[in-house]
Specification:
By secondary structure, the protein is an alpha/beta fold. It contains 8 helices and 9 strands. 29% of the residues lie in helices and 21% in strands. It has a 4-stranded antiparallel β-sheet, with helices on one face. α2 packs across α8.
Length: 231
């Protein structure tokens, strides 16, 4: 096991061992313990009381964070010519169809989100082996397969993200940057957790929100009392 660096020891010393912080406290603390010299991402990890191996306990959804993610999201829209101008006007970084499909077949995946129309999915199906492992495959459930590509672009640029519980029952997502105010981080975290609560499977038994942590790219996690999310 590697030894803790001086900065890691200082950060850990600022977190009270065994304490469950309220959400407002955690939003302040995660900024305080960050020691990265860059504008680090702030992440949230929520362990859920579900069994992801069961289809009726899979938790997946989308949420639009009130203050966005702080990240520049590169969006590719694969659409018919009649929707290209609207997609560009909405802020899409790349717009087209066959030329980008061919680029992707050649290995190009330098985007964060791909949005398309239902009629185009037949052409995109063959790209599943490339896009799937990278989390880039358009999906109706995440709003990235839609007739209104312009609105989808606007939503993504405003801070709309999709999430899915992993095999360990944990949902992980970035909810902002260290440069955000504590209030902005609190609002984003609250919106994220409340969205998870709304998606609680009817078959999930026992405690649903088992644990919640906030952390930055390099900082230790700050544990949150789930009961404080709506406080």
């Amino acid at each position: 096991m590697s030894k803790l660096t001086k900065n890691q020891k200082i950060a850990l010393a600022k977190i009270e061992a065994g304490k469950n912080y309220t959400l407002p406290e955690a939003a302040e603390k995660v900024k305080e313990v960050n020691y990265a010299k860059f504008n680090a991402s702030v992440d949230i990890d929520v362990r859920l009381g579900v069994d992801p191996r069961k289809a009726n306990q899979m938790v997946r959804g989308v949420v639009t964070l009130p203050h966005g993610t702080g990240k520049t999201v590169r969006v590719l829209v694969l659409c018919n010519p009649d929707a290209e101008e609207a997609a560009k006007a909405a802020g899409a970084d790349y717009v087209g169809l066959d030329e980008y499909i061919n680029k992707i077949k050649g290995g190009w995946t330098d985007v964060d989100v791909i949005i398309t129309q239902p009629a185009i999915m037949g052409k995109i199906g063959a790209l599943g082996r490339i896009l799937g492992p990278r989390g880039l495959m358009p999906n109706p459930k995440s709003g990235t397969v839609t007739m209104d590509v312009a609105k989808a672009v606007e939503d993504v640029k405003r801070g709309k993200i999709d999430f899915k519980v992993d095999k360990n029952g944990i949902v992980h997502s970035s909810i902002g940057k260290v440069s955000f105010t504590a209030e902005q981080l609190r609002d984003n975290a609250r919106e994220f957790v409340n969205t998870l609560i709304k998606l609680k499977p009817a078959t999930a038994k026992g405690t649903y929100l088992k644990s919640i942590y906030l952390s930055t790219t390099m900082s230790p996690g700050v544990k949150i009392d789930p009961k404080s999310v709506d406080a």
